[in-house]
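sorry to bug you again but im stuck and you know this stuff better than me. below you get a single protein, a line of residues and a line of whole numbers that encode the local backbone shape. mainly i need to know what kind of three dimensional shape the backbone takes. anything you notice is useful, everything is just below:

***
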Amino acid sequence: MNTTDFSAGFLLGLSLIIAIGSQNAFVLKQGLRREHIFYICLFCAVSDALLISAGVAGFGAVTARYPNLIDVAKFAGIVFLLGYGLQSLYASIRLSHALDVSGQVVTSLQKSLLLCFGFTWLNPHVYLDTLVLVGMVSTGASSKLTFALGAVSASFVFFFALGYGARLLQPLFAKPKAWNVLDALVGLLMFYLAWHLYQG
């Protein structure tokens, strides 16, 4: 295995995914709540793996030829982010809002995965990052397969570290008020990302 190509893919994948975004905020919240962490992290990582593989295989050329695909994803992403942002802001001001890490309020696995699907597949930036950017950079690698494995590995490492590492913040989020603040911040982040997509 070409370690240079693997390292290049890993570092590129990590640099693209480490930025604060709606998907990462969701994974962090699930990690704090200790709800379906393994499945959420696995879903995110496998989704990245599929998109990265498609990008390296040349699907970036398809999105470049049919830019309307990105426009459709952009519109759907804005609607989804606004909806979830409103939900988070509402949760942050509810008087009965008292989530805690013991899991008193549990979201079903199906609902969690549906939300995760929205944050992942309705985000046009993920297509630009994985299909176009990673696909384009991979053309300079001596081994596209090794480069892709590096980028995919970065996704698995990052998501599982974020999901399971979130419990280190458990003492802070043992207080219901901290959850209210987190929900408010997540809601504002969703609105900002929706605005950013609209401007982009």
Confidence is low (pLDDT under 50) at residues 95-101. Residues 81 and 190 are 5 Å apart (CA to CA). The two ends are 38 Å apart (CA to CA).
